[in-house]
Amino acid sequence: MGRTKLWPSISPNKTVEGALGGLVIALLVSLVFAVAWPDWIGYGTAIAVAIAAAVAGQLGDLIQSAYKRLRGVKDSGSLLPGHGGVLDRTDSWLIVFPLIHLLGLI
């Protein structure tokens, strides 16, 4: 669907449209949590978490892609064939979780 490449030299299949779609989905999900559990998370915090998670998630994925390009490998492991390895499935979490914690958002 996306046509505008986000950073083609690092991750040629990632698009700006995909990144914006991820941000919109993150905002929607966080707002569902704010509506369903208003005593747990407010709207402002939900929006802040969504934006931080969406941006940091993209950053984590790009960092992993850049590392693989630097090392000249396609996959970071063979435990999950066809998925780029376990690290490719968790690369965004490695940035998102510490950031959310350090910012004190949740």
List the SSEs and their pairings.
Elements: E1 5-7, E2 11-15, H1 16-36, H2 43-71, H3 86-90, H4 93-103
Antiparallel strand pairs: 1-2
Helix pairs in contact: 1-2, 2-4
Provide a descriptive summary of the structure in words.
The protein has 106 residues and is mainly α. It has 4 helices and 2 strands, in the order ββαααα. The protein has helices at residues 16-36, 43-71, 86-90, 93-103; strands at 5-7, 11-15. Strands 1-2 form a two-stranded antiparallel ribbon. Helix 1 runs antiparallel to helix 2 (43-71) and helix 2 runs antiparallel to helix 4.
Short description:
The chain has 106 residues and is mainly α.
Secondary-structure-derived class: mainly alpha
Spatial arrangement of strands, main beta sheet = 1-2
Average pLDDT for all residues: 90
Separate helix tally: 4
Q: Could you estimate the helical fraction of the residues in percent?
A: 55-70%
What amount of the residues lies in strands?
5-15%
Our Rg estimate from Cα atoms comes to 15 Å
The parts where pLDDT drops under 50 for at least 5 residues are none
Ends distance: 33 Å
E-strand count: 2
Features:
106 residues; mainly alpha; two-stranded antiparallel sheet; 4 helices; 2 strands; 62% helix
